[in-house]
Amino acid sequence: MTLSSGPSPKVRSPMTVPRLVKMKGRERITMVTAYDFTFARMLDEAGVDALLVGDSLGMVVQGRESTLPVTMDEIVYHTRAVARGTQYAHIVADMPFLSWQPSVERAIDNAGRLLSEGGAHAVKLEGGAEAAETIRRLVSCGIPVLGHVGLTPQSVHAMGGFRVQGKTREAAARLLDDAVAVAEAGAYGIVLEGIPTDLAGQITRAVPVPTIGIGAGPECDGQVLVCYDLLGLTPTLRPKFVKRYAELFTAGVEAARTYCDEVRAGVFPAEEHGFGEVKREGEESAPHNGTSNRTAGYGPTR
Ligand code: KIV
User: Which residue's alpha carbon is at the smallest distance from atom 8 of ligand 1?
Assistant: First the structure.
């Protein structure tokens, strides 16, 4: 395939499901997780095609051991914040643990909330052939679904830990069948997580929709990373499949240390960070930041 380097930031229009599907075999799809307004703004500005409000927020934002405790209300809350910070990217919200399995009705209610209350454009759910009927029903309601097969973190206990999946021929064949079932049910794409590179390539060639890999090698149609990993905000975690593009945890520690030093030394705040003096009778107040408004510096900077 001939791959372009993606849309120029100057000519961006909002990403849509049909555009993502068309990208298969033409342009690689970029997806990054986002959980709040500011990160969404930053990633959107960078030209990331799709933002995933992943239940990984349970681990990187809430500090939990797994994604299992994350609730529907929490995903709705974070999706809303992400939607406010996004102009261009396609927004996918994760269906939390057991938010779709009890019944198709429950799945429709919960997925619907992510679109109507959260402002997501699509939902993602973890599961293979067993999720096919639910995916079919959601899609028939106009809810785009991104599948997720392979290492599915919500099944951490069944898998015996966060382990690479599909390593034997039988397991690989099952995962291929799962991916095909998810695509046939109407998913517009499939996340492939934690599986061997050649199996990810085989699945990518077997399904008509884009595959988006994480720990699944370079043969997928796109890639997704957790934003905290990509930016180096997870100092104690260095999974093999992650490439860090910055070291923001270290930079943050340095910045906060310098702040503490400066406050303790009386260096910050300096004169220019203050709001001058109380004006005397009949006097205009001293200008700050080029304006005579006494609240200058408190308004939004956008
Ligand atoms: O929750 C999440 O962030 C995910 C990605 C790792 C694909 O599901």
Answer: 54
